[in-house]
Amino acid sequence: MSVRRIQPSDVDSVVRLVHALAEYEKAPQECHLTSEQLHASLFGAAPAVFGHVAEVDGEVVGYCLWFLSYSTWRGTHGIYMEDLYVDPARRGSGLGKALLVELARECVSKGYQRLEWSVLKWNTPAIDFYKSVGAFPMDEWEMHRLTDAALTDFAAKG
Predict the structure, then answer these.
(1) Given CA atoms 108, 62, 32, 128 in this order, what sign does their dihedral have?
(2) Helix or strand holding residue 110 (H, E)
(3) Residues forming beta bridges with residue 116, ordered by sequence position
(4) In 3-state terms, what secondary structure has residue 142?
């Protein structure tokens, strides 16, 4: 078992796992990620997305994808973890925790002061795991999102 930075040769495996995550989160129809898109995001001219993989016996069985955030109140960057996923057959083996620890180490080593993410309210196994490592819900905050036609219409009409 090991955790390491994602490499170009891992992209197809990570895309497969992203689609598995979308299935788990009951929204496979919303996941359109391709290997070409992820490769460009991770390894293009100006990468803004980063990632780690967990592997067992040379097989990628988990991943986390993240990007930098910024806190005006703290005056430092942080990490926003977009995804953390471990193949269901490998859960409970410490891989998810190892991925999260790696992101915490990234924060500490670079002086970042936040590691944040979102979790679906019905995903109690994930919530319990996150609470077990000391994370807490931001109950006073509510996430909002513009996508698809609403985003396009708002951009056009203001």
Answers:
(1) negative
(2) helix 95-110
(3) 80
(4) coil
At residue 158 the predicted structure's pLDDT band, cuts being 50, 70 and 90, is confident
Per-residue pLDDT of 43-95, as tens digits, reads 999 999 999 999 999 999 999 999 999 999 999 999 999 999 999 999 999 99
Instruction: Give the model's confidence band at 127: pLDDT under 50 very low, under 70 low, under 90 confident, else very high.
Output: very high
DSSP state of 25: T
Task: Return the pLDDT at 118.
Answer: 95
Q: What is the C-alpha to C-alpha distance for residues 36 and 148, in angstroms, rounded to an integer?
A: 21
Quick one: which H or E segment has residue 65?
A: strand 59-71
Catalytic residues: 130
Whether residue 41 contacts residue 51, with contact meaning beta carbons closer than 8 Å, is answered with no
CATH of domain 2-119: 3.40.630.30
φ, ψ of residue 92 in degrees (nearest 5): 85, 0
